[in-house]
Amino acid sequence: MLALSCIIMSIYFWRLLASSLPARDLIISCFIPMGPTGEGAYSIQNLAVGLGTYIQKSNYLLSRGPHKQATTDMIAAVAESINWLGVIIALFLMAFSTFWLVQATGSVILRIPKRFNVGFWSFVFPFAVYTNALCRLAQDLNNPGFRGWAATCTIITLLLWLSCALMTLWKGVWKGQLFFAPGLEGWTERRASEERSKEEYDGGEKQTTGRRAGTDEMSNQAANADTTRTSRPDGTYSLARWRRRSSAIV
Question: Fewer C-beta within 10 Å: the chain N or C terminus?
Fold first, then answer.
C-alpha cells in the first residue's frame, strides 16, 4: 500500500507542478499526502520492534544449509539490526512526510479558505498519524529534539480536532450545513438558473412563433381584402378598396 501511495503522490506532485494549487475551499486537501508516509513510518517501527522481540524470545534465525548454532549475542545483534533498520526507514518516511507538511502549510497560507467546510477534517488524520510516528521515533531514539517536536505536534493535533469538532457541531447540528461539499458549491443554484433560462427561451420561441402566425394571417386577410371585387349594377366589377388605399399611399 505504501508503494502505491508513493506512485499516487508522484502523480499528485506532477499535477501541482503542471497545473496550479487546488481551489480555495479544497486547499486543505494538500495535507492528505502526509497520511500514508506518517502511517508507514509508524507501522515500520512497530514491525521492526515486534520482529526483533520475537527473534530474541524464540532464538529464531533464518537458516540455509548447515551452519554453527547461533549464540545469544548473535541473535541479540540481529534483533538490534532489525530495530535500527526500522528506525532508518522511518526517518526516511518522516522526512518525506515533513516535506508534504511544509508544502501544504505554504499552500494554505497562499490560499486561506474563506469559510469552514467538511474538507477541514483533512487536517486531523494526516497530522495524527504524523504525530504517532514522531512519538514512536522519539521513544526509539530517546532524543530531546524529537520529543519536543512530537509534544508540539500532539498539542496541534488536539487543537485541530477540537476546532473541527466544534465547527462541525455548529455548522452541522445547529445551522444544518454539515454535508456542504466544496466542489459542488453553487451547483444547485446554477442548475436551477439553467432550467429557468431554458424555460424562458422555450416560452420566447412559442411567443415568436405565435406572433409570426398572427402576422401571416393578418397579411393574408389584408391581401384578400385588397383584392375583393365589388359588383356594379351594370354587371362590371371594381377594386374600390385597392384604389382608395393606393390613392392614400400616393
Answer: C
